[in-house]
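From the thread on structure requests for the teaching lab: each student submitted one protein with a one-line request. Submission from student K.M.:

"Model Cyclic pyranopterin monophosphate synthase from Clostridium tyrobutyricum DIVETGP, tokens only."
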Amino acid sequence: MNLTHINDQGRAKMVDVSSKDETERSAAAVGHVFMKSETLNRIKDGSIKKGDVLAVAQVAGIMAAKNTSNIIPMCHPIFISGCDIEFSMNFDDNSIKIKSTVKNTGQTGVEMEALTAVSAAALTIYDMCKAIDRGMVVKDIMLMKKSGGKSGVFERKIK
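Reply posted by the TA:
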């Protein structure tokens, strides 16, 4: 398989998508932030001094998805038609699972936007809680599903 982001001189390039058809595309990504039980309880109770952690993380994730091409050098600036961020708290392992879903109709997919949204939301959780828990761990950020485009559907199988 040839890498499409490499030119004839072996240097990075932005892929030319001008000949691709516009199709409906979507991508979903997940990630986790692990923390102390006290930190998770304070997020749940809304007692973090910086404010509503998940509300701020949600906005950060959406903003990051919209600005992915400004962060990841070879990403195309694209119009995003939808972006959602969901959080679920797990008190068994003291974690917050972050899921992003991004959609568009265009010539290139939204996988990087979904991954960037999860990353920014996770880092925002860390930033807002670091005063009480510098040992938090951001982990397992991955693409779960993508659809649309010539390559079709990808869906991660987790046992």
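TA comment: The longest strand covers residues 23-34. The chain has one domain: 23-147.
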